[in-house]
Amino acid sequence: MQNVTPLAIAALALELAPAVMFGLAASRVARFVGRCPVPARLALPALFVAPYLMVSISAHMFRWRWFALYALLPVASALLELRAAAADPEQRGNWRDALILLVLGLAVDLRWFDPAWPQGLRALNELFLVDAGLYGFLAIRQLTNTGFDFHLQWSDWKTGLRELLFFTPIVLLLGLALGFIHPHRNLPGVGSALLRWIAIFFFTAVPEELFFRAWVQNLLERRVGRRAALVVASILFGLSHFNKRSAHFNWRYVLLATIAGIFYGRAWRQHHRVPASTITHATVDWIWGLWF
What we know:
mainly alpha; 2 domains; about 0% strand
């Protein structure tokens, strides 16, 4: 991979650390943050700028405007969520929540911040946005029912694989009919295939399920109910794929991703568990990479 240096790997480890802490001990992290004085609570996420500093300086790409953005964006998110928590203690959803989700979503989808990073390391930007969102929603807002938990349970596998079985015949028939999927065989060794599934699980499926299910669908449920929230979150998930694998609006991808979102959302809402929907999502992407 291009530009993958020991320093870049260290930056990746730094960006993974907050996600791992929230995934393993979200309540303890939230309690620790809650005991800090308000100024410290708001200033703490400015540390998320460290990976950008490490990578950009070593690649001779450092720019003060990007430094300011990466230092201040998580602080602004924390401040907005602090205000949202005060204005909306019932957690029914506040305009500040929507604003943060809009900025995070568009920043990823439209690749607003990609020029800040060397070629091959732009995924670090997405991990930064995940960290900023986790800190705001889980440490400051302390949003309930997200289900962001890396302690996998048997029910996660049962629910995730059930939705996979329901979704597979639909996507196969529709994908073939639309000419979107083209069967081929690309079978790696068992170890390589397992590593590919794990990579998809953590670096593709977890961030997307965290955003669309734990945050978007979760907040929508409180406003419009379970069914409407599932539909709206799935449509937004589908639309987020409009520019994938195409220079133009990829309506086939949008349609299939919207239908996929229905089943991912069903998996999440069964017990409000991100691992359940992530298992469905990761396995769909994994099978697609192997056979289509």
